[in-house]
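Risk register update: the risk of archive-format incompatibility is retired. Evidence:
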Amino acid sequence: MRITSLIAGVLSIGLLGSAAQAEGSLDRLSQRADLFGWEAVGKVAIGEGGFCTGVLIAPDLVLTAGHCIFDRARKAARPPSEIRFLAGQTGDMEIAAQPVARMVADPDYAPFEPISADTVRHDVALLQLARPIPSSIAAPFRVGTIGPKGTQVSVVSYARGRSDMLSWQKSCTVFGRGEGLVGFDCDVNHGSSGAPVFDRSGVAAGERARVVSLVSAGSRKDGEVKAYGMELPAIVATLKSALRSGRGVIEGESAQAQAPAPRIRSVGQPGSAPRVLSGGSASGAKFLRP
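Archived output:
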């Protein structure tokens, strides 16, 4: 796909309709044993029931979509105190939980602009947890470069209708890439924002999967789902540098001092549905009209 066509696809994104793509290709990670290897993927819990998906790339650093840390209604960044990371949450339990102490979005991201190729290209945020989650509990993933059109990728995410456990789509395809944008035909929905897109091509040789993009936006039409993300390495390097320097960082008030040690604990009510709101409330996805 030519990059002009890919950009046109991003510009035509609208709200997801009621049509649903068949989910036969999705594996539900419903048991603790199913999570083995994916413990570092978790729910970014926002306020009173909103959520995105995020992934650890260091014991104290979570990568997610930039729009997840902004409140469109208030036209302001959310305070870190409203956001928690729940590693490997399944039902009412998670592998580990930590509040967010500091966070930063790509400085070129415009959170209150309509969806466009440029907003998707920069829709990345890095969350620093109040305390690290030990690698023995949830081993972080490395960030890598995504392959060309036709590359097979994999997505692990939460989403509306499957918000109580992670779902793993083992294989979907990159249908376009260029100018920092990536398009892939993975099955995503509200709540999948920030979900890691993995390259697993080295697994057969004993290498671990790498995070090569994040789900930023998507469209669903006539049962066909298209998702859009960005190339990551340069953005992640910029965000790590910003956290070190403090440039553009949104600070929490006192999470560092009072943060609990990582542990398995119960949250919410078993089987409860998330409250997914629009208009910048506790929304778990960036599927908005331009």
